Amino acid sequence: MLDNENLVLVGQKCVLVPYMKRHVDHYNKWMQSPELLEMTASEPLTIEEEYEMQESWRVDENKCTFIILARETPEQEITPENALVQSMVGDVNLFFNDHDDPHSAEIEIMIAESSYRRKGMGLEALRMMMTYAYQSLGTKRITAKISTENKSSIQLFLTQLGFVQISYSQIFEEVTLERVLTVSGSSSTFASTLSEENGAAEEATKAVAGLVGDLTLQSDRDHPSSSSRNASDVDKTETEESGRKNGISVVFSSAKTNDGDEEEEGDWIQEPATTALFETLELNDSDLDHPRE
């Protein structure tokens, strides 16, 4: 997607940068791993094929991809000059494949480096991507398709990201989870319906548990998806407080729409932990694969 080709999102634990030619060699090495190929239901690509895919994704308006880089410490200064030299960890993606709803996207994430799993980095990257999707891409609904074998990832999306289950496929052995994004007010904080959301998450957890068993079991595998390239990280670290500088007020609502226009809203209370704190930088033209004219 060209919208993010020069954009850097700087969080507390990670830095999101566009997928560029400089990342292809490392990414291709990741995708030779039998573990990651199994996680993502992918076939290994040659390096030439990987470069072709990177370029096709760069210009595809239905795909938004960020490479996840590690931030050494929250105090480390990230600038356009050093943003691209941080360690590669994985990637996070949005796929706009719902032709009936252009404001809906499927989200996926892969933490490829095992040493960076279980550290809250995937959780923060997901929150950053959801916030960016709403603020910059006009996304109103986020879905995630997760294998029923990946109980920890299901629990992560239900309890820490406020998703609710909307369907279950016995054939593909996966659940589809959803989160609806709506606006509330004009302050620079984020809000969510804890009472409604927690209740919805509890009911969804029970529903999924009835299909796939105890959701507290450990797993770090995710589902094959429409992209056939990514998997979900299943961070289970504690939730960090966050909010977006100079942002708009967003409600990440678990409510469904009645007719596609009006949202069912409950009693909203402030809960900044449902989104991620990040700053936005632009890369220098000299660092871009295709410098702007």
Automatic annotation (TrEMBL):
It holds the Pfam family Acetyltransf_3. Belongs to the acetyltransferase family. GNAT subfamily. Residues 15-163 form the N-acetyltransferase domain. InterPro entries: Acyl_CoA_acyltransferase, GNAT_dom, NAT9-like. The keyword Acyltransferase applies. The keyword Ubl conjugation does not apply. The lineage of its organism: Eukaryota, Fungi, Fungi incertae sedis, Mucoromycota, Mortierellomycotina. Keywords: Acyltransferase, Transferase. Residues 232-244 have a biased composition (Basic and acidic residues). Residues 216-273 are annotated as: Disordered. This is N-acetyltransferase 9.
